[in-house]
Write a sequence for this structure.
């Protein structure tokens, strides 16, 4: 039923646009000049096909490429624009069919892409014909009028597309609708205004070299825009893969792979460092008493507590099931020990509040820590310091729960 209604709406737009163009019934220029302009616009439109910016919205592809239709309708009238859109859009239709990039309803979209630009730009054409003689003497009247008409046509076109997407349930909230209507950049509209205004001006005065230069400049800018967009996408993709490689997705903090990278970097610096390994006490009993989902909640809160309490220059990593590693930088041994004792109390005072079997439960837990404090002087290997911290953690675990065992290697005595 929805598809039938959509077809009715789109075909109605096409028929209204066709009726308007035929009723207008004349070209504003002679046939010979029209053919020259038509061939030029079609030629450059063919070049621009692969530059079109298609954005998937639900099941629809929305084309956000620059439109030259307004300059064409000002030059040739609604009938001329209708004929141009037929040639241009059916080329796109057959191109997509041949390259297997067509949508399921590509033919229906083609009729919309012929009818809608013809109808909306014809409205702009009649507004221009009515208003321009009245403001002709004002400074920059032509450019201001073209700019406001392009904004006006963009708004009514967006509103109509929004109506179609509401019919097809491609818009699900008022927020999505608002973002769609306001999604166009003012710079894009200024670019459309400048391009269409210059094309109309230079074609009207017969300055064909300038016309070709505008088309070529538009093509070059489009190519540059695509290149820049690809670079941004590649950078974003690279950052995304780096995050995937270096992030523990349960706790959203860095993982062991990233810790190894940081240790290699810190090996090349000279500074005071504390390597701390922490482990949640009796974590298996939490999983056995409740379930693994509750256990995951405990891990997530523990990771957040560590992350929230370290300084911006410090690091925290998840290096095992319930094992986490911190690297504290440029602090004294006493400051690191104070930090750990304070952190131990925070953990004790912050039980995990969650839901278990439809009831809210509070799960207290503790953690034990091993800390190895060292002065890194290029000659040492922080991996060895990590091993020492792990040994200290084992001592802490064997001596009971909620314990800290620390060693200051710069004094070579227990802390």
């Amino acid at each position: 039923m929805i598809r039938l209604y959509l077809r009715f709406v789109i075909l109605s737009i096409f028929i209204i646009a066709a009726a308007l163009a035929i009723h207008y019934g004349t070209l504003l220029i002679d046939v010979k000049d029209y053919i020259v302009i038509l061939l030029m616009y079609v030629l450059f439109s063919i070049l621009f096909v692969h530059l079109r910016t298609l954005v998937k919205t639900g099941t629809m592809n929305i084309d956000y490429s620059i439109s030259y239709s307004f300059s064409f309708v000002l030059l040739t009238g609604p009938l001329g624009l209708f004929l141009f859109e037929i040639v241009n859009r059916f080329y796109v239709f057959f191109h997509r069919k041949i390259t297997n990039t067509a949508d399921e309803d590509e033919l229906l979209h083609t009729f919309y892409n012929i009818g809608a630009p013809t109808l909306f730009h014809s409205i702009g054409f009649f507004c221009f014909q009515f208003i321009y003689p009245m403001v002709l003497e004002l400074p920059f009247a032509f450019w201001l009028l073209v700019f406001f008409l392009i904004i006006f046509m963009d708004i009514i076109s967006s509103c109509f597309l929004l109506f179609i997407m509401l019919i097809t349930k491609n818009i699900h909230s008022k927020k999505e609708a608002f973002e769609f209507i306001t999604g166009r950049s003012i710079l894009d509209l200024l670019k459309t205004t400048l391009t269409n205004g210059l094309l109309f001006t230079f074609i009207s005065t017969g300055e064909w070299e300038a016309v070709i230069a505008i088309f070529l400049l538009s093509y070059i800018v489009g190519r540059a825009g695509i290149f820049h967009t690809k670079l941004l996408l590649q950078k974003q993709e690279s950052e995304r893969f780096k995050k995937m490689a270096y992030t523990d997705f349960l706790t959203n903090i860095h993982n062991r792979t990233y810790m190894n990278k940081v240790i290699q970097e810190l090996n090349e610096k000279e500074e005071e460092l504390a390597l701390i390994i922490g482990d949640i006490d009796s974590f298996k009993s939490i999983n056995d008493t409740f379930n693994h989902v509750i256990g995951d909640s405990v891990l997530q809160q523990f990771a957040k507590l560590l992350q929230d309490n370290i300084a911006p220059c410090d690091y925290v990593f998840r290096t095992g099931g319930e094992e986490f590693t911190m690297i504290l930088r440029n602090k004294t041994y006493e400051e690191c020990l104070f930090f750990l004792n304070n952190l131990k109390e925070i953990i004790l005072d912050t039980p995990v509040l969650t839901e278990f079997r439809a009831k809210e439960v509070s799960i207290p837990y503790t953690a034990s820590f091993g800390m190895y404090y060292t002065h890194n002087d290029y000659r040492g290997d922080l991996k060895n310091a990590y091993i020492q911290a792990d040994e200290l953690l084992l001592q802490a675990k064997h001596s009971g729960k909620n314990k800290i065992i620390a060693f200051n290697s710069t004094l070579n005595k227990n802390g």
Remarks:
- The longest helix spans residues 208-246.
- The longest strand covers residues 270-280.
- The radius of gyration is 34 Å.
- The chain is about 65% helix and 15% strand.
